[in-house]
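Dear H.,

Thanks for agreeing to be a second pair of eyes. The structure we're designing against is below in token form, covering all 105 positions.
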């Protein structure tokens, strides 16, 4: 479950990056708005997309790495995933169900 949850999170992060990047490119190529407004909006949209990508990716990546470690029976993965599961309890309702599975038994 941690692998699936982490993968979905990374796909969402990539989706936000592509969405805000494409919106920024449409705004920059749009001829209907003034060039000054577009020059202000494009870096803001790109920055929002980048920040969302980094935050969601940072939250999702440890669960994905730990889940792969559990599948490969890595000795570090059990304690690591107990910590990640405890942090997942704060994300209601999906994280609560995911965190209550513990160390992947």
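And this is the sequence the design step returned. I haven't edited it by hand at all.
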């Amino acid at each position: 479950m941690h692998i699936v949850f982490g993968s979905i999170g990374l796909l969402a992060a990539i989706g936000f990056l592509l969405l805000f990047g494409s919106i920024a490119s449409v705004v920059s190529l749009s001829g209907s708005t003034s060039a000054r407004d577009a020059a202000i909006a494009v870096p803001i949209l790109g920055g929002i997309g980048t920040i969302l990508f980094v935050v969601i990716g940072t939250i999702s990546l440890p669960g994905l790495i730990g889940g792969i470690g559990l599948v490969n029976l890595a000795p570090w993965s059990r304690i690591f995933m107990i910590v990640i599961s405890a942090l997942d309890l704060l994300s209601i309702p999906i994280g609560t169900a995911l965190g209550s599975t513990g160390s992947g038994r």
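Two observations from my side: The longest helix spans residues 35-71. The chain has a mean pLDDT of 86.

Warmly,
E.
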